[in-house]
UniProtKB/TrEMBL annotation:
Polar residues bias locations: 396-406
Organism: Pinctada imbricata (Atlantic pearl-oyster)
Record flagged with keyword Transmembrane helix: yes
GO BP annotation list: cell-cell adhesion
Localization of this protein: Membrane
Protein name per the record: Uncharacterized protein
């Protein structure tokens, strides 16, 4: 007899038969068929549930037909977990979650079992949320919103990752140009053999039905600058020229421009300007002065930064400066006359200075000799010299000793008594004088003009201020 769960609780009795003999029925026995849970029933019966963050899940009832009665247990396997199910706390075998969060997304399993067997049924919970801000990695290193500097000619792998549900459309772009995109929460893009043109602002953009987010970073490739554009000249004069140019890409570092011209005697270049770049791509103009008139020039410009320069591919401009204008004959003649006059004046001034210096030196020499003089300048013998007297009408006249027959009658000056105040005076040339006071004739006993400084004589002497009276002469 094959027993199924449908036979459960049936009443069973039996009797025996032998030939024509039949026994009575035995006592009635109740059949109890044991079976495990063949089917697990969830109510509501949704295999997948989509909720936004903050909404509630359940309650979800789990049941099954089994004999003996089954035990019911809920387990949870997080989407971002390690794949293992963990016990989920429930009440009355019902699953209910209030205020769901993205971390609650995953598979919820109702496990039913008894001593005969077990069964299960799963329900998936998807928590909807917009993409998080993407995480960017270059070469495995996380990149923030800062400038990333890399060397030229290398290869770079840019990885962009986000978290969202539903899955985002991720894209990587430079400036306004999209480089790569794919529907995934993680994408990668390779930059091979990078150069200066790969420098710029990069964007990792994540987008889904719940929102969008992005990360931005600057990538700077270290490289020598590009050459300038439109190098030209204008306003050529006899000694100057105006040069203009437009800066090229600076190679990811501050750049400057070196302007030089050819040398007429050697193969070297003579630097005349070194101009720093303001960082704005605009026309730059500079005036070069000090050029030679009527000469053919060749100018070149080189861009440079700390990584290199464009000296291998410079730009050139060539031009010839104008000659000097012809001079006006009248103006030239006037200029010649003025020049001659100025030259003559300079010669006269020089001669005057020489004479002045010579006289000054002579006087200085005489003054040095005068330092050894006891009585001052040389006084000649009175008998050999004319005498001078004093007359009321004619202050100066020849004395009676003069050879002039028309000698006036004069009164002679008298010397004064020597006093401490009667000191001789030495002037700036080292010459010494005696003082004759004609204003006070009555101070002497004879009523004559007073001679201050001569203690014994009454007559005037001829004083030779060009010779000094030395100690040796006094000894004689």
């Amino acid at each position: 007899m094959s027993v199924t769960r449908s036979d459960s609780y049936n009443r069973i009795s039996c009797r025996a038969t032998q030939n024509t003999t039949v026994s009575e029925f035995s006592n009635i026995t109740k059949l109890n068929v044991l079976y495990g849970p063949r089917e697990v029933v969830l109510s509501p019966n949704n295999s997948t549930t989509n909720l936004e963050e903050g909404q509630n899940l359940g309650p979800i009832t789990c049941s099954a037909d089994c004999n003996p009665t089954c035990t019911i247990q809920w387990k949870f396997n997080a989407t971002v977990g390690d794949g293992r199910f963990v016990d989920q706390t429930t009440q009355n075998d019902e699953l209910e979650i209030v205020n769901v969060r993205r971390s609650m997304a995953g598979v919820y399993r109702c496990l039913v079992r008894n001593k005969v067997g077990y069964n299960r049924k799963d329900v998936s919970l998807n928590v909807l949320f917009p993409p998080d801000r993407p995480t960017v990695r270059i070469g495995g290193q996380i990149v923030g919103e800062r400038t990333e500097i890399r060397n030229e000619s290398t290869s770079l792998k840019i990885n962009c990752t986000t978290s969202s549900y539903p899955t985002s459309l991720l894209s990587i772009g430079r400036g306004t140009k999209e480089l790569y995109n794919r529907t995934s929460n993680s994408i990668s893009f390779n930059l091979r053999n990078v150069g200066c043109t790969d420098s710029g602002q990069y964007t990792c953009l994540a987008f889904n039905s719940k929102g969008r987010n992005k990360s931005v970073f600057d990538l700077q490739i270290q490289w020598k600058p590009l050459q300038v554009q439109s190098f030209s000249h204008a306003d050529v004069d006899s000694t100057s020229v105006n040069l203009t140019w437009i800066p090229g890409f600076n190679g990811g570092a501050p750049q400057h421009f070196v302007i030089s011209h050819d040398s007429p005697k050697t193969s070297e270049w003579i630097v005349v300007l070194n101009v720093s770049d303001s960082g704005q791509t605009q026309l730059i103009s500079r005036l070069v002065q000090g050029l030679m008139p009527n000469r053919r020039y060749r100018f070149r410009i080189v861009s440079a930064n700390r990584f290199g320069d464009t000296s291998q591919m410079p730009l050139y401009v060539e031009f010839t400066t104008k000659g000097l204008p012809e001079s006006d004959p009248l103006v030239s003649g006037s200029m010649v006359g003025v020049a001659a006059g100025v030259s003559a004046l300079i010669v006269v001034v020089i001669i005057g200075i020489v004479v002045f210096l010579a006289v000054k030196k002579l006087r200085k020499t005489e003054a040095e000799k005068g330092e050894k003089t006891r009585y001052g300048p040389t006084i000649r013998d009175a008998s050999e010299q004319p005498r001078y007297g004093y007359d009321d009408d004619n202050m100066y006249a020849n004395s009676p000793n003069s050879q002039n027959d028309n000698t006036l009658q004069v009164r002679y000056a008298a010397p004064s008594e020597p006093t401490k105040e009667s000191t001789r005076t030495q002037n700036q040339d080292g010459l010494i004088y005696i003082d004759v006071d004609f204003e006070k004739p009555n101070e002497s006993k004879m009523g004559r003009p007073v001679i201050h400084g001569d203690d014994s004589r009454t007559n005037y002497m001829q004083v030779d201020f060009t010779n000094n009276y030395t100690d040796s002469e006094a000894a004689e």
